[in-house]
Amino acid sequence: MATAQAKAGRREWIGLAVLVMVTLIISMDMTVLSYALPFITADLEPTSSQLLWITDVYAFVLAGLLIPMGTLGDRIGRRRLLMIGAAVFGVASVATALSNSPGMLIGTRAVMGAAGATLMPSTMSLIRNMFHDENERRAAIGLWAAGFSAGGVIGLVAGGALLQYFSWGTVFEINVPIMLLLLILAPLLLPEFRNAAAGRLDLISTVLAFVAVLPMIWGIKQFAEDGVDWPPVAGVVGGLVFLAVFVLRQRRLADPVIDVRLFRAPAFSAAVVMNVLANFALVGFMFFISQYLQLVLGLRPFSAGLWSLPAAGAAGVGAAVLAPMLAQRFRRAYVAAGGLLVGAAGCLVLAQVGDESGLALVVVGQALMTGGIAMVLTLSAELIVSTAPPERAGAAAGLSETGSQFGAALGVAILGSIGTFVYRRQLSGDAPDGVPADSWATARETLGGAVQESRTLSATAADTLVTLARAAFATELRAAALASAGILVVTAVLAAVLLRNVGASVPGQGPADGPTDSTAIPADAPGAPAGHVDPERTVDPMSSGAGVEDADRGDTDPGPVVRIGPESTGQPVRPAHPVA
After folding, report:
1. What pLDDT digit, counting tens, does each position of 365-406 carry?
2. Interacting residues of 505 by C-beta distance below 8 A, sequence separation 6+
3. Alpha carbons 35 and 172: distance in angstroms, whole number
4. Looking at the predicted structure, is the pLDDT value of residue 568 above 50?
5. CA torsion angle for 390, 396, 61, 63 (degrees, to 10)?
6. Which parts of the chain span the membrane according to its record (predicted)?
7. Residues 276 and 403: beta-carbon distance below 8 Å
8. What does the pLDDT look like over 158-192, one tens digit per residue?
9. Taking the alpha carbons of 143, 291, 423, 358 in that order, is the dihedral positive or negative?
10. What secondary structure does DSSP assign to 89-112, as a single string?
11. Which of 49, 283, 332, 368 would be a feasible disulfide site paired with 408, CB 3.0-4.6 Å?
12. Residues 496-518: what's their mean pLDDT?
């Protein structure tokens, strides 16, 4: 069984509150821009291409730099990188709010994305250093995940409220007080951790990680917006080629950015798969919810955001309460599969909405979906961080967040493509009486286009056009809900199979998870205390037998240990980690 660990104190829990606020702000910045776009368009008059980059550059840069920044934090210090990122994020937020041209806005949003990439892995990996007790760590990661899940919805509500009374720049200025608070409290509440035994950061690997992730996510998003064309295909293919080169390089380096051998661990690989597919369904389907509330049911942005708050509350309960509580009593496979099936049930509720009514179904279905998926995201984040060696927790956290971005981009692209096909199929045929052919062609592209075109028509023709478009979009939403339910059911089966040998605990965590100030001491390094045994490196937490409990829930058998790296020669070596 897992060794009893030291309990966290008041300082650690207050520090966690600061980290949750940071994740909340980062998540808010992914959605808060959506309501500000009409105001930005009127003020700065960007071209269609510039508007696309204003919308996407933050997420592109964020996704491309998550893994390199996580690795950098392991080397220079996770708290130090967090504070550097907070300062840059705050300054870039002010510059974004003061932007007076599309080019300036694109540039400042890119800087915000780069700073956000330093914050996300640092917050998750610092939790590993602050909470050594397994149950407390799981609860802390649950609160962290709840903050991230709720941030997207809160961003919609806050953005809608601010834009009713202030200029569009205020949606970015709200970041500044949180970043200032972080800079003040971080040295007082957060521990420092860096792996002093790590080698130099491999700049070639850093570049390869960026050029592998960014073009793939760009290409996937372009598929959703423009369909299959050679530029997005080239982006995805090029990204895959660079990814292959990146993986080959990591296998040959003595101190890689990401040790790809971690994927040999069933718990680690299963967690990454769950993370990608859960975000696929969650983020991909949220694209339909906001349009349904505003364009089909006719709610104002602020009201639509308020009706999404129950979903944010359900995400908080699922991530911070249910996942930690159930994971203490049941195997990860059961908890993860159960959460995914709850999410699938929510999708089936959403598949019942109509084109004239359905608010109650949306509220209930969205709450079930987000609550169930939030449980899974908590478990996947905990497994990824807990099974990776402590000196690589930052890189593992970056990989986790990169998987989230991939899943989100794939969800928007694939579910969006399915929805577009269904929508256009519903509106096939000739234009109805009174509706010009040009207006009908525009209406067949998007529901937003149909609503816009209806304002140029007579009352009768406008009513006909909007009614048909809303009915088609409701059918589109139902199809996407069924597709999301199918994805979640498949993911539940995968979770049940891949995690079947992972018990209710992850054994092998050392009492302190490694020193929290400078480095982790290898067990065989000179100067290690006599009889010193580092549990992190002598018990294999990632083997297929990790956490397997016998029939009477007795002791576990972690199985044989296989070390990576050279045998001890009496000389200092970089810490190795066990891989099954």
Report:
1. 999 998 999 888 888 888 887 777 766 666 677 777 777 777
2. 1, 2, 134, 547
3. 12
4. no
5. -160
6. 12-38, 50-69, 81-98, 104-127, 139-159, 165-189, 201-218, 230-248, 268-293, 305-326, 333-353, 359-385, 406-423, 479-499
7. yes
8. 777 777 778 888 888 888 988 998 899 888 888 88
9. positive
10. HHHHHHHHHT--SHHHHHHHHHHH
11. 283
12. 54
Average pLDDT in the chain: 76
Nearest in space to 274 (alpha carbons), one of 89, 487, 99:
487
Residue 563, phi then psi, degrees to nearest 5: -90, 150
CB 422 within 8 A of CB 415: no
Rounded Cα–Cα distance for residues 393 and 134 (Å): 15
Which positions ≥6 away from 452 have C-beta within 8 Å? 442
Axis-axis angle for helices 134-165, 359-387 (nearest 10): 140
Geometric angle at alpha carbon 145, from 57 and 257, rounded to 5°: 60
Are 470 and 355 in contact, with CB atoms under 8 Å apart? Answer: yes
Q: How confident is the model at residue 145 (pLDDT cuts 50, 70, 90)?
A: confident
In which element (H, E) is residue 460 found? helix 459-498
Residue 200 tokens read as 């130099």
H/E element holding 373?
Answer: helix 359-387
Rounded alpha-carbon distances, angstroms, from residue 556 to 3, 383, 541 = 12, 18, 11
Q: Which residue has the tokens 């041209």?
A: 101
Indicate the pLDDT class of residue 48, thresholds 50, 70 and 90: low
Helix (H) / strand (E) element for 118: namely helix 102-130
**What does the pLDDT read at residue 104?**
93
CA dihedral 81, 84, 88, 89 (to 10 degrees): 50
- 291-349 pLDDT, tens digit per residue, is 788 788 888 767 877 888 888 888 888 888 888 888 888 888 889 999 999 999 999 99
Cα 209 from Cα 69, distance rounded (Å) = 11
Do the beta carbons of residue 120 and residue 61 sit within 8 Å?
no
- The Cβ of residue 51 has, within 10 Å, a number of other Cβ atoms equal to 18
pLDDT higher than 80, residue 154? no
Highest mean pLDDT among 52-61, 148-157, 365-374: 365-374
* Residues in contact with 551: Cβ distance below 8 Å, sequence separation at least 6, in sequence order: none
Burial (CB < 10 A; 0-12, 13-18, 19+), residue 571, is exposed
The stretch 1-12 carries a mean pLDDT of 66
Cα–Cα dist 284/481, whole Å: 10
**Residue whose token pair is 């660079």:** 242
d(CA 25, CA 31): 10
The rounded distance, in Å, linking the Cα atoms of 326 and 345 is 19
Angle at which helix 359-387 crosses helix 332-350, to 10 degrees, equals 160
Cβ atoms of 78 and 126 closer than 8 Å:
yes
Tokens for 46, please give them.
């960007």
The answer to whether 398 and 68 have CB atoms below 8 angstroms apart is: yes
**Distance between CA atoms of residues 78 and 228, nearest Å:** 41
**If you average pLDDT over each of 225-239, 479-493, 549-563, which comes out highest?**
479-493
CA pair distance 351, 361, nearest whole angstrom: 9
The token duo for 534 is 């580092």
CA nearest to 377, candidates 416, 411, 335: 335
